[in-house]
Design a protein that fits this description.
With 431 residues, the protein is α+β, with helices and mostly antiparallel strands. It has three domains: 218 residues, no CATH class; 76 residues, no CATH class; 115 residues. It contains 13 helices and 20 strands. It has a five-stranded antiparallel beta sheet with strand order 2-17-4-13-14, with no helix packed on it. Helix 9 runs antiparallel to helix 12. It is globular. The two termini are 13 Å apart. 28% of the residues are buried.
């Protein structure tokens, strides 16, 4: 199997479901600076080969993603130049998190003029679902031939063709069509489901939810104007809508509102995600956590991102001995400031991980002059950012490798392909 399959398979199953944040976007100047830094690093690095084991790909991906997470957390706590406010970033809360969760996406200045509000969820946004006819899996109800049908959305139309071979069964044909639709990249997921009578049917679900006023569907499947197409659609039954799409509906401070999706923003300040329908007359309240609680949560988020990369180094300690270097680089951010950190409630364990004593932290920051405590926290945040930047720029620094040749120290040249070694290690090993 190609290495690219292993690497991307691991990435997709582990990290792809995590949503991107606004801190994952960069200006051209920032990207140019990153590139120049990578080139500078590689100019003096030796030529080496990567030991081709599955752990190498997983380890490098874990390093890169954990470092990116640290940098995003640090960036979210660095929007304000005033360090006494950096860790006071507002955090939204919901009184009914099983019904609706809230995330504050506005600025500190906006928060000063925002009051709490109530939301009562009356209906969740739903996708459209089509369910075909259940056919005997081992039989073939279509004669061998080439068939086609049309699939239209509210913005485009598509033609799908498939071939039925003499050796195919109904199940084989259904799998072909399901894969064809799923892999078409038009926001539809198709699968073949089975019942207790050894029959199977094609289930098609839209990735999108909700629809505009006047729209009857998110997607519509129709036969082409020939006998073959009409016969195929009649047998397969995939034009049958069993669950029409619907919008989310809710009361916002008793005012009727709707949304195409279950995640949406309110006044560019709150991002709300609906999970369930409210009990009638019992709305959830959305507001801000108290300052001390918000500070504790922000610190905990930073500490969690740090602990994750320490755990990564331990996870690969046996298969990747170079992970000790990752541990040393990252844990030094905590050990360097250990005494100062513990004075404000961040207890550095012997293995380098940090435990937050929220009572001590509250005592340290909930005073008339918390500047010294915030200064320590800010120092840790900045030092951790530098360590994460190094790991992010060159995650391959921490994987096991074989040195092939050292460069001439009197005449170093840029090796342009080395700048993509992280990407290159995902390519087919025979390239």
């Amino acid at each position: 199997m190609a290495t690219i399959d292993t690497a991307y398979g691991y990435y997709l199953s582990t990290y792809a479901s995590k949503s991107a944040s606004r801190y994952d976007t960069h200006k051209k100047s920032e990207l140019r600076n990153i590139y120049n830094t990578i080139v500078k690093i590689n100019k003096e690095s030796p030529l080496y080969k990567i030991q081709n084991t599955g752990d190498v790909q997983r380890f490098a991906i874990d390093i890169k993603e954990n470092a990116r997470n640290i940098k995003n957390v640090v960036a979210s706590l660095s929007d304000d130049d005033d360090i006494t406010k950096a860790f006071q970033k507002k955090i939204a809360f919901s009184t009914q998190e099983d019904i609706v969760t809230a995330n504050y996406i506005g600025t500190s200045q906006q928060a000063e003029n925002i009051n709490s509000f109530e939301i009562e969820v009356q209906q969740l946004a739903q996708p459209q679902v089509n369910l075909g006819s259940f056919l005997a899996k081992d039989h073939l109800d279509l004669r061998p031939d080439t068939y086609a049908f049309d699939l239209s959305t509210n913005s485009a139309a598509y033609e799908f063709q498939f071939t039925v071979a003499p050796t195919d069964s109904n199940y084989d044909v259904q799998k072909k069509i399901a894969n064809l639709i799923t892999n078409s990249g038009i926001n539809l997921q198709a699968s073949v489901i089975e019942d207790s009578q050894n029959k199977s049917a094609i289930r098609i679900e839209s990735t999108n939810t909700g629809r505009n006023v006047g729209e009857e569907y998110l997607f519509n499947i129709t036969p082409q104007g020939n006998h073959n197409s009409m016969t195929a659609l009649n047998v397969l039954g995939i034009d049958h809508i069993v669950e029409p799409s619907q919008n989310a509906e809710f009361l916002l401070d008793d005012e009727k509102r709707s949304s195409f999706t279950n995640t949406f923003s309110i006044n560019n300040a709150f991002e709300l995600t609906l999970h369930s329908i409210s009990e009638e007359g019992n709305p959830a309240t959305i507001g801000f956590k108290a300052n001390v609680d918000a500070i504790a949560d922000n610190i905990q988020t930073l500490v969690d991102s740090y602990n994750d990369i320490i755990e990564t180094s331990d996870k690969y300690s046996e298969s990747q001995p170079q992970s000790a270097l990752l541990y040393h680089d990252m844990s030094s951010a905590a050990f360097t400031l250990q005494n100062d950190l513990e004075a404000v409630g961040l207890i550095v364990e012997s293995n380098g991980e940090i435990f937050v004593d929220k009572a001590l932290l509250a005592d340290a920051v909930d005073t008339e002059h918390p500047d010294e405590s915030f200064s320590v926290l800010n120092d840790f945040k900045n030092l951790l950012d530098k360590k994460a930047t190094t790991a992010s720029l060159d995650p391959m620094k921490y994987v096991d490798k074989i040195i092939v040749v050292y460069k001439n120290p009197n005449k170093t040249l840029v090796t342009p392909y080395i700048t993509s070694i992280y990407s290159g290690m995902m390519m087919d090993r025979y390239c």
